[in-house]
Amino acid sequence: MKNILAGLVGLVFGIGLIVSGMTDPSRVLGFLDVAGQWNPSLGLVMCGAIGVGIVAFRFASRRERSLLGDAMRLPTSRQIDRRLVFGGLAFGAGWGLAGYCPGPAVASLASGGAKPLVFFIAMLAGMGVFAVAERLNSR
């Protein structure tokens, strides 16, 4: 049941990304091009997502268990460290260069295009490099 619900929630999220235009790299890059032909539509999508996120986190933080009965595991750290800063820079650079971030890249795979597939493979490779670096760093 949990897997079915997770799949449905993921499907709705992916459809939302497609409908909002987040899977269109030209729209994303147009939003980031503040010195050229700036397209503010992505900012509205982000504001809506932040609003939903704030409500969801407030709701979740008041509960000990999820709606399906699992223990809540919300982030507790408020520390800004080197890993967070460099991770944010890498995420932003990848998003700005490719026009994709992880969620829209996965949703874009449904289009069958080569660009989302190349980005997705590069993203998986980056995740693999990070996992190896973490293992080596923890020794």
Fold and architecture overview:
- By secondary structure, the protein is mainly α.
- It has helices spanning 2-20, 25-32, 41-61, 82-98, 102-108, 114-137.
- α1 packs across α5, α2 (25-32) crosses α4 and α5 (102-108) crosses α6 (114-137).
- The radius of gyration is 17 Å and the shape is globular.
- The mean pLDDT is 91.
Please name the defining characteristics of this protein.
139 residues; 6 helices; mainly alpha
User: Cα distance, first to last residue?
Assistant: 39 Å
| Fraction in helix | 55-70%
Order of helices and strands: HHHHHH
Task: Tell me the number of structural domains.
Answer: 1
Beta strands, count: 0
Report the radius of gyration as a whole number of Å: 17 Å
Strand share of the residues?
under 5%
Shape verdict? globular
Structural class: mainly alpha
Brief characterization of the structure:
This protein is mostly helical and 139 residues long. The chain has helices at residues 2-20, 25-32, 41-61, 82-98, 102-108, 114-137.
Any chance you could write out the topology, listing elements then pairs?
Elements: H1 2-20, H2 25-32, H3 41-61, H4 82-98, H5 102-108, H6 114-137
